[in-house]
C-alpha cells in the first residue's frame, strides 16, 4: 500500500510541477481540455510517465518531450489474453464485410460493363446509329474513368499543395471511414489534423517504455516531414520499434500474434490543439483555430457500427465546425468535446480485451515482465564491455561493478 501511495504522490508532484511550468508559456484555455472529462488523468509533461485511469482501467501516460510535447501517449498493459485473434480482426484490421462488399460491388460493376458491351455489340445497327452512339459511349467511359480517378485520389490522399486544410482532413476522414489500410499515407494529414488512434503490441517484444516512447517520437517525426517516401503511421511505427528491419520481420516481432499472452494497448493523441504545428515542414495554421480530430482506427470493425460508429460520425460532423472555430473559447470547448469522444472510443477498445489489466507504476516494473529477455541482453552487453575494455569477472564484482570499471578506463584514455 505504501509503494502505491508514494507512486501516486510522485505522479501528482510531476503533474503539478509541469502544469506550473507550462502555465507561463501559454495563456490559452485549450490546455485544460483533457482534464474536463470524468476520468482521473493529468497531462504528462517532460517525457515522464504518470498514472492514468479511465473508468476502471489503469495505465501510464506521457508526452513525447521535448520535440513534440503536445503529443500524448497512454499505455495499458494486459496479461493472460484469451482473444488475441479476435482483437486483431476487431481493432486492427478493417471489417471483412466492408472488403467483401467492395469486392462484390467491383465485380458487379465489371459484370454490368461487360453486359453493356455485349448488348451494344449485338444491337449494333447501321453506321449512322453507331456514330450517334459513339459519343455517348465515350462520355460514359470518360465519366467512369473520372470517377475511378477521383476515388483513387481520395483513397490515396493525394492532396495537392493548393488544397485547404479542410479538404485534406476530409480526404483523410473519407479514407479512414472506408476502412482503407493506407489511410494516413499523405504526410499533410499530420499537419492539418489532430491524429488520434491506438496500436496493439506484443508486450514481450519490448524491453522498456522509453524504447516505446522514442519509437513513437521517431515515427511521428518521419510522418510529419513531407518526403517522397511517405509511409503509413503503422509502417513507420513498427520500423522504428524494430530498428529499421524489414516490414515482415517487424510485423512478426511486434504485432499481435496467436501466442500473445501479454498485450500493450498504446493510445496516442494530441493534447494541445491550439499549439503551433509540430514541424516547420508541415502546413502552417493559425494558433487560434481548432484542428479537426482524425481517428486513425476509424476503419476497424469496432467502429463500423453501433456506439463506436455514432461517435465517429459525431467527430466527422464536428471537424468542419472545429476547423472554423476562431475564438479561443470555442476552440477549448471543441477540444473538450473531442477529448470526451476520444476517451469513449478508447474505453470501447479497452473493453474488447479479455485479459487482466495490470497497473504500471514506472518503467522498471514493466521491465520485470520480460525479465528473461532483458537478462539475456544485459549479459551479452556485459560480456561485450568486458572484452572491449579488458575487465575481468573479479573486477566486475567490486563495488561499482562493471559500470565503474568501464568509466575509469574511458577516463584514463582521455587524460
From TrEMBL:
Instruction: Give me the stretches of Low complexity compositional bias.
Output: 15-24, 98-120, 132-162
Q: Which residue intervals are annotated with compositional bias (Polar residues) in the record?
A: 1-14
Region of interest called Disordered, as start-end residue ranges on this chain: 1-24, 98-162
Q: Which UniProt keywords apply?
A: Nucleus
One Pfam annotation reads: CGI-121
Q: Which residues cross the membrane?
A: none
Task: Give the signal peptide range.
Answer: none
Q: Which family does it belong to?
A: Belongs to the CGI121/TPRKB family.
What protein name is recorded for this chain?
Uncharacterized protein
Origin species: Eimeria acervulina (Coccidian parasite)
Amino acid at each position: 500500500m505504501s509503494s502505491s501511495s508514494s507512486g501516486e504522490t510522485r505522479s501528482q508532484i510531476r503533474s503539478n510541477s509541469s502544469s506550473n511550468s507550462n502555465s507561463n508559456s501559454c495563456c490559452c484555455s485549450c490546455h485544460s481540455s483533457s482534464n474536463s472529462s470524468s476520468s482521473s488523468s493529468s497531462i504528462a509533461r517532460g517525457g515522464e510517465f504518470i498514472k492514468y485511469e479511465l473508468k476502471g482501467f489503469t495505465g501510464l501516460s506521457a508526452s513525447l518531450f521535448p520535440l513534440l510535447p503536445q503529443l500524448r501517449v497512454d499505455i495499458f498493459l494486459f496479461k493472460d489474453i484469451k482473444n488475441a485473434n479476435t482483437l486483431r480482426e476487431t481493432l486492427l484490421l478493417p471489417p471483412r464485410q466492408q472488403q467483401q462488399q467492395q469486392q462484390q460491388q467491383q465485380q458487379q460493376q465489371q459484370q454490368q460493363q461487360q453486359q453493356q458491351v455485349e448488348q451494344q455489340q449485338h444491337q449494333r445497327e447501321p453506321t449512322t446509329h453507331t456514330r450517334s452512339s459513339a459519343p455517348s459511349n465515350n462520355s460514359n467511359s470518360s465519366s467512369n474513368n473520372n470517377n475511378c480517378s477521383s476515388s483513387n485520389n481520395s483513397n490515396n490522399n493525394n492532396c495537392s499543395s493548393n488544397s485547404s486544410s479542410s479538404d485534406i482532413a476530409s480526404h483523410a476522414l473519407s479514407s479512414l471511414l472506408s476502412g482503407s489500410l493506407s489511410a494516413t499515407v499523405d504526410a499533410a494529414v499530420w499537419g492539418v489534423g489532430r491524429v488520434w488512434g491506438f496500436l496493439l503490441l506484443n508486450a514481450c517484444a519490448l524491453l522498456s517504455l522509453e524504447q516505446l516512447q522514442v519509437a513513437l517520437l521517431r515515427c511521428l517525426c518521419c510522418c510529419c516531414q513531407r518526403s517522397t517516401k511517405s509511409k503509413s503511421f503503422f509502417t513507420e511505427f513498427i520500423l522504428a520499434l524494430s530498428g529499421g528491419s524489414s516490414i515482415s520481420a517487424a510485423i512478426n516481432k511486434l504485432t499481435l500474434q496467436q501466442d500473445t499472452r501479454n498485450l500493450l494497448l498504446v493510445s496516442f493523441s494530441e493534447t494541445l490543439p491550439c499549439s503551433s504545428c509540430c514541424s516547420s515542414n508541415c502546413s502552417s495554421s493559425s494558433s487560434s483555430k481548432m484542428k479537426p480530430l482524425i481517428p486513425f482506427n476509424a476503419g476497424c470493425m469496432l467502429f463500423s457500427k453501433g456506439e463506436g460508429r455514432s461517435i465517429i460520425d459525431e467527430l466527422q460532423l464536428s471537424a468542419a465546425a472545429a476547423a472554423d472555430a476562431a475564438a479561443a473559447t470555442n476552440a477549448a470547448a471543441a477540444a473538450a468535446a473531442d477529448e470526451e469522444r476520444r476517451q469513449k472510443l478508447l474505453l470501447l477498445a479497452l473493453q474488447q480485451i479479455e485479459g487482466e489489466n495490470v497497473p504500471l507504476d514506472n518503467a522498471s516494473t514493466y521491465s520485470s515482465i520480460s525479465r528473461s529477455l532483458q537478462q539475456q541482453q544485459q549479459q551479452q552487453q556485459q560480456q561485450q564491455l568486458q572484452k572491449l575494455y579488458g575487465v575481468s569477472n573479479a573486477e566486475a564484482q567490486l563495488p561499482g561493478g562493471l559500470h565503474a570499471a568501464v568509466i575509469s578506463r574511458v577516463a584514463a584514455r582521455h587524460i
